[in-house]
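Re: [ENG-882] Designed sequences occasionally contain unexpected residues at chain ends

Forwarding the minimal case from QA. Structure tokens:
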């Protein structure tokens, strides 16, 4: 359980769905190391919780997360940046194996946008803005803004976002492949929860394997990926869910997934 003053609110929603809400309004949900770590900790707990089949991550009405904590950045020199624990925290978030859905209203900048890129599906309010403004501070993105962003939106869009430091709209983000769905302002969370509930009602092992294999496309050659895909495909043939899926098809009934 979490209280109103906690920097991350954790709440069970529909069956199988966990909601994580960034809660640092006085800093526009700036992703200081403690808040980033709280997200990773909550996801680590969700990994071992069989009742959780999908997670929704959201912020506030006017800002998802407005970047990293500038005070933390200002206090570090080269050595401090190289020894920062944040890369290990980011790695834990990226390694979360269950479907992760972002609900974005308002600003998603810098580390906030890099957190969005850790998610598998993204729903945005129409007025949402997405950007990597680090070059405005004389630095560059450090957690995916140059490594992951061009793989999602393409080289040209990524170059413009990084070199000019100007955000793109929700519609532009959808057209570029960063966002799945754009909804009316104020509707991102409900739409994201609906998506997560639909995912949570599906075969858990297939959802996790599907996520892992699609994400592998960002890092793997096609030849190697085809081998991984076939291995993942074959592995599920030994699952109870595969047997249940086939049986329910022939028996013309809804499947009851066990995640086994």
């Amino acid at each position: 359980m979490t209280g109103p003053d906690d920097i991350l609110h954790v709440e069970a929603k529909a069956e199988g769905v966990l909601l994580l809400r960034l809660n640092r309004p006085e800093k526009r949900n700036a992703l200081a190391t403690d808040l980033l770590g709280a997200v990773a900790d909550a996801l680590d707990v969700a990994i071992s919780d069989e009742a959780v089949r999908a997670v929704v991550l959201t912020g506030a009405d006017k800002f998802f997360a407005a970047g990293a904590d500038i005070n933390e950045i200002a206090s570090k020199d080269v050595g401090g940046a190289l020894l920062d624990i944040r890369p290990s925290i980011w790695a834990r978030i990226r390694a979360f194996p269950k479907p992760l859905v972002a609900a974005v209203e308002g600003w998603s900048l810098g580390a906030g946008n890099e957190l969005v890129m850790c998610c598998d599906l993204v729903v945005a309010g129409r007025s949402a803005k997405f950007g990597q403004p680090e070059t405005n501070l004389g630095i560059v993105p450090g957690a995916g803004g140059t490594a992951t962003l061009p793989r999602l939106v393409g080289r040209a869009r990524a170059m413009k976002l990084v070199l000019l430091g100007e955000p793109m709209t929700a519609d532009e983000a959808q057209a570029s492949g960063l966002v799945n769905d754009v909804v009316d302002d104020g509707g991102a969370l409900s739409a994201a929860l609906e998506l997560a509930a639909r995912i949570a009602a599906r075969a858990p092992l297939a959802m996790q394997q599907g996520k892992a294999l699609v994400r592998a496309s960002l890092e793997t050659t096609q030849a190697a990926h085809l081998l991984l895909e076939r291995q993942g495909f074959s592995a599920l043939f030994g699952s109870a869910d595969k047997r249940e899926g086939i049986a329910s098809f022939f028996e013309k009934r809804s499947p009851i997934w066990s995640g086994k």
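QA comment: On inspection the terminal residues look reasonable. The longest strand covers residues 17-22. Proposing we downgrade this to a documentation issue.
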